[in-house]
Amino acid sequence: MDLGKYRFYSEAARGLKKPELVLKGAYVFMAHSGEFVQGDVAVADGIVLGVGSYSGEKEIDLTGKYLCPGFIDSHLHLESTLVTPGELIRQAAGCGTTTFIVDPHESANVSGSEGIDYILKQTEEVPANVFVMVPSCVPATHVDDNGCILTAGKMKAYLDCPRILGLGEVMDAVSVISGSVSMHEKLALFEGRVRDGHAPFLNSGDLAAYALAGISTDHECVDYEYAMAECRNGMYVLIREGSAARNLDAIIRGLVSRHTDTSFFCFCTDDKHIEEIRREGHINYNVKRAVQLGLPVEKALKMATIQAAQCYGLKHLGAVAPGYQADFVVLDNLADLNVLEVYHKGRLIRADEKKEIPPCPPALKNTVHLQHFTQDHLRLPHRGGKAHVLRMIEGQIATEDLMEEVPCSKTEGDLLFAPGDGYLKIAAVERHKGTGKTGVGIVKGFGIRGGAIASSVSHDSHNLIVIGDNDRDMYLAVQELVRSQGGYTITENGKVYETLPLPVMGLMSDAGYEEVNRVLKKMIAKAHEMGIPEGFDPFITLSFMALPVIPEIRITPRGVYLVKEDRLLETPFEK
Amino acid sequence: MDLGKYRFYSEAARGLKKPELVLKGAYVFMAHSGEFVQGDVAVADGIVLGVGSYSGEKEIDLTGKYLCPGFIDSHLHLESTLVTPGELIRQAAGCGTTTFIVDPHESANVSGSEGIDYILKQTEEVPANVFVMVPSCVPATHVDDNGCILTAGKMKAYLDCPRILGLGEVMDAVSVISGSVSMHEKLALFEGRVRDGHAPFLNSGDLAAYALAGISTDHECVDYEYAMAECRNGMYVLIREGSAARNLDAIIRGLVSRHTDTSFFCFCTDDKHIEEIRREGHINYNVKRAVQLGLPVEKALKMATIQAAQCYGLKHLGAVAPGYQADFVVLDNLADLNVLEVYHKGRLIRADEKKEIPPCPPALKNTVHLQHFTQDHLRLPHRGGKAHVLRMIEGQIATEDLMEEVPCSKTEGDLLFAPGDGYLKIAAVERHKGTGKTGVGIVKGFGIRGGAIASSVSHDSHNLIVIGDNDRDMYLAVQELVRSQGGYTITENGKVYETLPLPVMGLMSDAGYEEVNRVLKKMIAKAHEMGIPEGFDPFITLSFMALPVIPEIRITPRGVYLVKEDRLLETPFEK
Question: Which of A133, B27, B136, B358 could make an S-S bridge to A168, C-beta 3.0–4.6 Å?
Fold first, then answer.
């Protein structure tokens, strides 16, 4: 700290000089001691000078309100929100999240280092603190066909960047545990920094081996028992409440009913659509929901603030105390927990404030490349007997691998799988290098009739993924995504119903969240109308059907993938 | 981590290979989740591989016992124990303390960098983890006459040493708050590392200004209210239970009665004699006492382990979890909390095990230099009226500044202060550079009759300090300490009763703790017999009477010092 400045801060902290801003009379949440204390918060140059009795050049009366440190989203992918990073951050910041620990692995899977640089550049001037974890698994596994390979060598370039905190979620648990050289090169590169985990459903020995490699967080945990297993292994549990994966209720209920020590728990969203952020909230929703479930508000607030800061070694964030950054959320009361105002570095964040967004490099807007792809690629011969069926589970990103008899039809002398009776066709089409690779499988739980839905957002390789009950609409949907250079689309009876273009790497729109919300709302309603059950977001759920690091079964451009067995099948029929 | 080793660890963690050691069946304290879970702890190469169900090459049955992470003393001065560092650490390690955060400022005040190097060298091969904070205040204040000045320039040499964690307790709060250049140079040097505090009795504004400077711990706190004030300011409170300062009861009682969140509290000893460590224990005593006062044992254990590790950024210590260092304390039960066994890096610590101790450089054994010092230096003319009297407070290192009428006598025509009626003479004699500087004052609360006690351990400048009821015995005591090149001594009726030589910098004995204990016990008994009240350790209490950073009044070689007013008086008589 500059000594001249310190001298002024010290005098202001001691009441000898007036600081530029004093927020007066709120009940201030003291994150270190976990209690509320009424007082004035003195601020200068975006730093808290003290909490006590102060008068300032400018004073804002917050008597009777509750002032907390800005919330921290301990793990998220900005791309999943469909809008450009600056757009998302402005919205989420309005909900009180002032710090984002971002893993740009969607961008990296499409565009490699250029994708990461895009995220860094886009978040330079936003009204929030954005830190980046370098994606560890690009591609996610050896069965993926993605756009770029990010080696330890390429990662090195990021080590000196002050906004890089560590290594992004290490999804390839098998490589970690078996001691793969390339994986451990990456782990070694980030020795002494935070290495984020992604460790769903590991057994006790595997989890210990995974933690032994130096991985210290996980956000994939879906129940209390596994959360405790991770915590005992020394990992921070980042309780996730996103659009597709909603794990908060199960974990918080366990913590509340057993009065568990929550010091190593934080909150994250992982993947949450802008539309849901607008409707429901962001980390403030995690806090609110946890409190509704009976968690003491002080504990919930610590998860959203100081504990996340401790987890990521952010010594200047997560508390309202001398020397901490002046990031605040003002709440109306402790029952409703409505966000009234948000401050970043001592400045009130205004919803209507627009900043110049750095432009997107042209190469990042031209990333959907198909060659030699025809409707024939979508044919699925029926071989008789049972087939592996990918059953989607509502509210989870895990899937179930069913072995079932599926309908069949005879077309031009060939026995083919025929969508119907709840069984649909699902296909993944490689889109980065025009290899023409297409995997076709059978899915249950989507229930769309008379059409198809498709997306270029498809974790983590972001190939094209399409589900439908007929090949013509599925083929049309793929063609439409090539035309729009990425996006979401719905086709029906041979026509494109609607497309949400996502031209930035095929992942994000640059048309603004209002337009995204408008189109998305219409498309989601249509999808439900076409038979997709209410209760889940069809596009987000679709986007996880190709992710080969989550059990039990996935579709990839190379075919059907059985996660636990690490086995790739050209066809879902085992016979 | 070496990949070859990791592969073995991973296989052992998964039960595919046998680890070298398994501690079986204990209730293991899970520091992250704050609970006990019964299980086997697998260990290899001094690292925990996992807690679960394991068999190993060697197995130790701990069924029914309690296995905790090794305890952490978050702040201590090894020199205060009177024995050489290795000696102390072996004793304290036997009590379960396996990590020591050491501030060698006593050594630095006498011998500068050579003193710090001595502490580093002596603790290289001990069965514990010893980390060092670079002393920040050598000398402690501008009124001190010590042996060496440690500038920011000299401190730089320590920045790259892996066992140096940060900056030692910053005692000169005035320099911090006023923005002194030399103090802030030191603070800046350790930016991003831990900077320990020493902040007794600061008012709310001063405390905020102090914390603003980046200081994040304090161990000087004596009551609950101040502890909470520090915690709210973002500081870790290191609850001290030493020989002279016993602050645990007051703070823990407050925490218990108010059900306070204790996540930012740790334990320390600061200054504790080896004899008391042997009798009462070390950090295990802090834990035990806290539990007796009603603190849940899980919270007490977290203070002694993971929280201290978090405070100092020691990511491999403070828990029994994969990848953590295998430092354990085995306890008999949760009521008595007796230490049965202690492990460091997976090895059982044996009390009888002696290691070669590196020799002490000769210059460090020749540090008591007096010239031109005569008995006349101890004369204290009585000027009539009231005088400042230094009142010692039992169980505290703070003192009270009384203005009282004191006895007087006429000797050879001069009116002199005459010890009696509870008033004794106290003197501080400069011993580093033979300047002959001698300050003489009046003390109350010691009550010695017919003799004197003296010490070369006298925080923090470690000049000679002597208290007595007659000049002859006081002079003799000073002469005796020159002869022994430092130590504790008692004189009586013109004769030396006994001396404990402390030849290493005038601070430590190299004769072993048995000899130190034997002589010390005898001397303490004698001191009480001569009139010093029971209930406090006369030598430790004496050693704080010259420390000019603790209110209210001190004796220094330059005279009586009033701490709060920062005022030096040549004589205690104000008239």
Answer: A133
Comparing CA positions, the residue from B444, B478, B483, B486 lying closest to residue B462 is B486
Whether the predicted pLDDT of A395 surpasses 80: no
Q: pLDDT tens, B59-97?
A: 999 999 999 999 999 999 999 788 999 889 988 999 999
Kindly state the average pLDDT of the residues A536-542: 89
Residue B437 CB: number of other CB atoms within 10 A?
A: 18
Q: What is the pLDDT of residues B432-454, one digit of tens each?
A: 999 999 999 999 999 999 999 99
Give the distance from residue B286's alpha carbon to the nearest chain A alpha carbon, in angstroms.
21
Q: Rounded mean pLDDT of A76-94? A: 89
pLDDT tens-digit series, residues B303-339: 999 999 999 999 999 999 999 999 999 999 999 999 9
Q: What is the DSSP letter of A339?
A: E
**Cα–Cα dist A427/A529, whole Å:** 22
Residue A425 has pLDDT above 90, yes or no: yes
B326 neighbors B48 (Cβ within 8 angstroms): yes
Query: Given the DSSP bridges, would you call strands B35-44 and B21-30 parallel, antiparallel or unpaired?
Result: antiparallel
A261:B324 CB<8 A: no
Residue in this structure with the two tokens 């000893």, named with its chain if needed: B269
Q: How many CA atoms lie within 13 A of B530 on its CB side?
A: 22
Cβ of A33 and B260 within 8 Å?
Answer: yes
A231·B188 Cβ contact <8 A: no
What is the β-pairing status of strands A451-455 and A438-444? unpaired
What single letter denotes the amino acid at residue A486?
A: G
Strand B71-76 and strand B97-102: the pairing is parallel
Chain A residues whose CB is inside 8 A of the B179 CB are 3, 6-7, 10
Residues B521/B539, Cβ–Cβ less than 8 Å: no
| C-alpha–C-alpha distance, residues B42 and B23, integer Å | 7
- What ipTM did this prediction achieve? 0.90
Residue B540's alpha-carbon distances to A357, B261, B561, in angstroms, are 65, 33, 20
The whole-angstrom distance between A41's CA and the closest CA on chain B is 11
What is the pTM assigned to this prediction? Answer: 0.91
> Are the CB atoms for B271 and B242 separated by under 8 Å?
yes
CA distance B421 to B406: 8
Distances in whole angstroms, Cα of residue B239 to Cα of each of A36, B70, B223, B252, B328? 23, 18, 10, 9, 22
What confidence score (pLDDT) does residue A243 get? 83
Quote the tokens at residue A72: 């921290």
The span from the CA of B243 to the CA of B395, in Å, is 8
